[in-house]
Amino acid sequence: MCSRGPVGERPGPEKWVEDSYWNLKPTWKTQSGKAVERFYNILKECRELNNKAADIIAKTERTISSIKRLSDARTVTLIPGDGIGPEISEAIVKIFEVAEVPICWEERTVTAIQAPSGKWIIPPEAKESMDANKIGLKGPLKTPIAAGHPSMNLLLRKTFDLYANVRPCVSIEGFKTPYSGVDLVTIRENTEGEYSGIEHVIVEGVVQSIKLITENASRRIAEFAFEYARNNQRSTVTAVHKANIMRMSDGLFLRKCREAAENCKDIKFTEMYLDTVCLNMVQDPTQFDVLVMPNLYGDILSDLFAIFESVHGTAPDIAGLDLANPTALLLSAVMMLRHMELHKPAKKIEIACFETIKDGKVLTKDLGGNSKCSEFTAEICRRVRDQD
Question: Which of 8, 44, 98, 187 has the highest CB neighbour count under 10 A?
Fold first, then answer.
């Protein structure tokens, strides 16, 4: 009789055959040994084939999923930028791939070129890509000083009428700063003001720069601020100005903010002078929610309190050394995903990024660690996978 083990146990077929073979009577082993051994080997081969088949099925399912994801994918223009731009852009591409974000990247280079008319423009292929895709992710671009052509950032804003510059500032658990509990957003008019680029020499030694404020641009950014507050469960919009000094220009901006507030009674509206905001910002930034302001003020204030900023510099001194921190561009990319209503991968990537910083074990030098950009990126990728 073959031994099948204690009652209630159900050993696998290979184990049962092996036990059966060794429990056969001696006279039967000679007659049946080869057959039993052959049957045992067949079972082993079957198990190996079954494992291989399972691997093939899993790979096929992943391939089908990838094909479906790519077939539904949106094409996004990627402008890696200068300095550390290519490194941090590569990090974002890797993280998006691991998170299976349905995006196809169309990479373009942006450098100023001069048209036959003498006007400075961005390369036609970059403009055509943005015109077709409507959405782009941009790394840092170097801003030349007295180089004979305008800032590429300014040129991009004017070319595509990128009128709203939205910069969130949020305290991140695990990264120590002078303040905690900060959660505010600055919304900066992006196309005019002192940054219009309208300046000229009146006489030798005298330069005039024009601050351009228009009714349409002021109304548009004010309405955007209130719409943003409403759509993002924000309660207060504060208009930042210097209408007490620049009565006409900032006065026009402030009037359009007041008009927009009249149409959004569910959002509280306050007004505050720029210098007062700066004072309160360094004393207690937690008192602010959404701030809307002209171009120059937004540039100053966002630099004042930014923990990380999507418009940081090109950092040429560390370019190519694998030392850059991709967090700013990554969280800008997360904002882009939410704009595209891809909320699930946006949340997954954001959680992985914040948990990596909170854990504190794999951080770039600027965050207090000793890890390289590639190691920080790999850790975020691991945490993205762990959420599946």
Answer: 187
